[in-house]
Amino acid sequence: MSKILVIGAGGVSSVAVHKMAQLIAAGNGTFGEILLASRTLSKCEAIAESVKQRTGVAITTAQIDADDVPALTALIEQEKPDLVVNLALPYQDLPIMDACLATGTDYLDTANYEPRDEAKFEYKWQWDYHDRFKDAGIMALLGSGFDPGVTSVFTCWLKKHHFDRIDTLDILDCNGGDHGQHFATNFNPEINIREVTANSRHWEKGQWVEGPPLTQKQEFDFEAVGPKNMYLMYHEEIESLKTHLPEIQRIRFWMTFGDAYLTHLAVLQNVGMTRIDPVMYEGREIIPLQFLKAVLPEPASLGETTKGNTNIGVIATGVKDGVEKTLYVKNICSHEAAYEETGNQGVSYTTGVPAMIGAAMMLSGQWRGKGVFNMEEFDPDPFMEMLNQHGLPWTLEELEAPLAF
Ligand code: NDP
Q1: Could you tell me the residue range of the domain that residue 7 belongs to?
Q2: Whose CA is nearest to atom 31 of ligand 1?
Q3: I want to staple 372 with a disulfide (CB 3.0 to 4.6 A). Which of 130, 144, 221, 243 is the partner?
């Protein structure tokens, strides 16, 4: 039985740890012990308390600043986990990977590295660790959330079972939940706003096509949500999918936003509150976006009030036995059900469950390798099976025609 070190104690971590504890309680044998460590110890303790109440499983907690590589290395050396699950922020990816290298420990995360001073994310920084991980005989699994994560598994599963070739891929992410707040983000506000305000970028015929943020919009009727405006955005799995499935001619990522969210965001941008460069305030430097994060609701606090569903899936058009077809695989997740089960809203749930499943894939040996890997490099079948068993069931549907846009 394995020992897991989970780093970070936000909404995603809370769901992942509850799910791992459920498996321990069920005597599944994959997860043995869980150590939850984060910057703020009281948040780890609150999760541990909830896990104990809901599952009867006791987990241990520790305080750690994951940016401090020597301190994290010492913690890993002392605790000797089999796997480090990074559910802190993308800024911590490289320091945590460094500590894993120093200690010869496997690594998993749900979001790719971003430098603090530039709102830019790409896999290069983490892919550059491949040879060092390989030489050390350890494995890193990158992006084991929903998107990135499940969306890549959906794509590989379609390719494995239903297509000889995929030509176009659209990833559709709809959060149809209402949290009752004027403005709040459903995962870490700083990371969310950096992502949403970045230029749109999609992959088409061997090159990136870039445009201004949130300008290309389409209406789409999402099952269990209704019609919503979705906007073309850049998202990290486009980079890994176009690398590992180079046959795909066009890959686009769409996310829904309500008008009120976009109006608030425009005002915040216009007044400079989303800036990530330092400004002087009362004699000290502050980063406006970090200050904004401090006054916005914590995503982990939105669970109780959020009602409605998320609906995230992929639509692929391709060819099987010479015939073109369009298939749609998706999951619908209820915010209320997620809250009832784990005390967290659906966006944390749809990320935390795949983080647990990715960890289970690695620990059970079903997904193994030496080096740094993305989700689409492994057999999708056992992952798809676990999604159905652990709260994120999916459906497959054939559409009458490719998307008209
Ligand atoms: P939260 O902000 O709720 O939680 C982040 C946690 O990380 C907090 O507990 C925070 O501590 C902790 N943390 C931050 N810095 C450090 C540090 N230096 N050392 C130790 N702990 C630290 O975020 P979420 O739970 O919403 O998101 C977690 C991750 O999941 C993010 O990387 C996000 O990008 C990713 N994500 C991925 C998705 C996917 O589908 N792939 C979807 C949604 C999110 P403190 O409480 O002290 O601030």
Answers
A1: 2-142
A2: 89
A3: 130
C-alpha neighbours within 13 Å on the C-beta side of residue 23: 25
CA distances from 97 to 6, 236, 365 (A): 13, 18, 20
233 plus 336 within the same structural domain: yes
Cα angle at 274 between 257 and 262, to 5 degrees? 20
User: 148 C-alpha vs ligand 1 centroid, how far in Å?
Assistant: 15
Ligand 1 atom nearest the C-alpha of 68 is: 18
Q: Please tell me whether residues 183 and 156 are part of one structural domain.
A: yes
* Residue reference for tokens 């394995």: 2
The answer on 95 and 37 residing in a single domain is yes
Find the CATH number of the domain harbouring 198.
3.30.360.10
Instruction: Kindly give the residue spans of alpha helices, DSSP state H, lying in 212-334.
Output: 236-244, 259-270, 288-295
Domain CATH code at residue 17: 3.40.50.720
Look at residues 119, 142, 165 and tell me which one is the last residue of a structural domain. Answer: 142
| CA proximity to 32, closest of 40, 19, 41, 23 | 23
Report the nearest-CA residue for atom 1 of ligand 1.
10
Contact 302 CB / ligand 1 (< 6 Å) = no
Which one of 110, 142, 174 terminates a domain?
A: 142
Cβ of residue 97 lying under 6 Å from some atom of ligand 1: no
Residue 63 in any domain: the answer is yes
- One domain for residues 138 and 212: no
Ligand 1: atom nearest CA of 145 is 41
